[in-house]
Write a structure and sequence with these properties.
Immunoglobulin-like, 24 strands, seven-stranded mixed β-sheet, 510 residues, 2 domains, Purple Acid Phosphatase, chain A, domain 2, six-stranded mixed β-sheet, alpha+beta
């Protein structure tokens, strides 16, 4: 096989736990049909892979009882020639979710995997098949990106086929999917019906766990389980690896560390307690590499010689939301993460460096009378959170970090912004592009005002026809990128609910 059996088995052993199970061979793996066996472990939330690189990946699933994750992996498209790997034993402590890191993969290779769970008697339950491809030197790279799932009370509407923007993304056959934050809306109850401003009625599939704001760990977990009821989401996740970020709504709207709530919907007022529960659910339900044993969300995912993706965490290390007029520095990334971003981007040998930012840089995003995002809405020198971004941009220029593109979501409309020091109040940086996508299944808003500190210019934007427009209005947006392995061209487009291209730009590498 085109697999390093030693490394793969080492990964499997490292993830193991103490549940006695009999040995199995590749032949017995091949004999296991993809059906549900009664009274055996089921797969109620599908399967997924994530953080795929040239030689590694993470696979994920969830079952309904204590059992061991089993993965059959093949690079031949035939499960009768698969390697069987055993992962961790699930329990109620992790909501019966399990992840298995795969190492020693070959670059430029398609892999098929089959996931199931074995009970304590060694009986395999329901199985499901998925696939992913590792990046190769002379292969094109394509991916989709967006954010904002199940927000503003817009959940799974069976009348329109569920979360159909996920189907449109799937149809582009991307190599991976970058979710730029707000994977769930833990603070937004989902009801059976919702009256829309245009007089229509939106209908939802509902569960008990999404009927109120999430406070308990079970309620946060329930939000991820809810999204995975949608067949469009499950189908995409089985075929397309995920790179996941988080923003505010995985916990609650506009939160920051140390905040004490005044919202009467919450019995637990300490945001740090809620964020801890939200973080555990996020890490349980999304397949991702846990760096050096730390549950750190910011990380680099190297997708071959053409692309490195730098996933930021603009939520965990921020200071309290400041007033617009605050002139001194206010943390957004935090010193450690900002230094990491500069150091890793400067060391990157990839042609393109995508900075996956869960919030936009130049758009004004208010939080009442305070500032939620980076921009403070004031022309002139950097203030508040703009200080950190100014430092990062200046360091990129000083260290000759070329070919950066910032991708983001958060504001619930799509836009393309070009930043240039010739238009800016702060000029110590090189020009770059910021592409905004989303929502993928939530209310549409916008457009927001632009702050002139870093000299942004709107090259394209498409927003809602009215505030909190439902997905059925068609104004749901995702981005698509394709990188040519020969010319190095980075072609980015913005697309609507049905995959229609609204705007396209080809960027040439320097």
């Amino acid at each position: 096989m085109n697999l390093s059996r030693r490394q793969l088995l080492a990964a499997s052993t490292a993830a193991g736990a103490s549940l006695a199970l009999p040995a199995a061979t590749a032949a017995t793996a091949a004999a296991a049909p993809a059906v549900v066996r009664r009274a055996r472990p089921a797969l109620p939330s599908g399967i997924a892979s994530g953080d795929v690189t040239s030689n590694s990946a993470v696979v994920w699933s969830r079952t309904d009882r204590r059992s061991r994750l089993v993965v059959d992996l093949t690079s031949h498209g035939r499960f009768d020639r698969a390697i069987r790997l055993r992962g961790p034993v699930t329990s109620a402590d992790d909501d019966f979710t399990a992840q298995l890191p795969l190492r020693g993969l070959r670059p430029g290779q398609r892999y098929d995997y089959r996931i199931g769970f074995e009970d304590s008697s060694g009986r395999l339950g329901e199985t499901a098949c998925g696939s992913f491809s590792t990046p190769g030197r002379n292969r094109p790279v394509s991916f989709v990106f967006t954010g904002d799932t199940a927000g503003q009370g817009y959940g799974i509407n069976p009348d329109i086929g569920g979360m159909i923007a996920y189907k449109a993304m799937h149809q582009t056959q991307p190599d991976f999917f970058l979710h730029s934050g707000d994977n769930i809306y833990a603070d937004g109850p989902i009801e059976a019906t919702k009256k829309v401003a245009d007089g229509t009625v939106w209908k939802n599939v509902v569960t008990e766990e999404v009927s109120k704001v999430a406070e308990t760990l079970a309620e946060y977990r329930g939000r991820y389980k809810y999204n995975l009821l949608d067949s469009n989401v499950r189908d995409l996740y089985a075929d397309v690896p995920i790179i996941s970020q988080w923003d505010d709504h995985e916990t609650l709207n506009n939160w920051y560390p140390g905040e004490i709530l005044t919202d009467d919907r919450y019995t637990e007022k300490r945001v740090n307690v809620l964020a801890s529960r939200a973080r555990k659910a996020f890490l349980e339900y999304l397949p991702m590499v846990h760096t050096a044993g730390r549950d750190r969300i910011y990380r680099k995912v190297s997708y071959g010689p053409q692309l490195d993706v730098f996933c930021l965490d603009m939520r965990t290390y921020r200071g309290a939301n400041p007033a617009p007029g605050v002139a001194g520095p206010v943390a957004m990334l935090g010193a450690e993460q900002a230094a990491w971003l500069v150091r890793e981007a400067a060391a990157s040998k990839a042609t393109w460096k995508v900075i996956a930012s869960d919030m936009p840089l130049g758009l004004l995003v208010p939080d009442g009378t305070e500032i939620e995002a980076v921009a403070n809405g004031l022309a002139g020198a950097p203030g508040g959170r703009e200080h950190e971004i100014a430092w990062v941009l200046s360091q990129f220029k000083r260290r000759k970090v070329r070919n950066t593109v910032w991708l983001t979501a958060d504001v619930h409309y799509c836009a393309a912004h070009h930043y240039d020091p010739s238009r800016a109040a702060y000029t110590d940086f090189d020009p770059f592009w910021e592409i905004v996508a989303g929502p993928v299944n939530a209310g549409t808003f916008g457009p927001n005002a632009l702050d002139s500190t870093f000299g942004p210019k709107v090259e394209f934007q498409k927003a809602a026809d009215f505030p909190s427009q439902p997905p059925s209005g068609g104004n749901q947006f995702f981005g698509h990128v394709e990188i040519d392995p020969h010319s190095g061209a980075f072609t980015v487009s913005l697309r609507d609910l049905y995959g229609t291209v609204l705007w396209r730009k080809e960027l040439q590498p320097h």
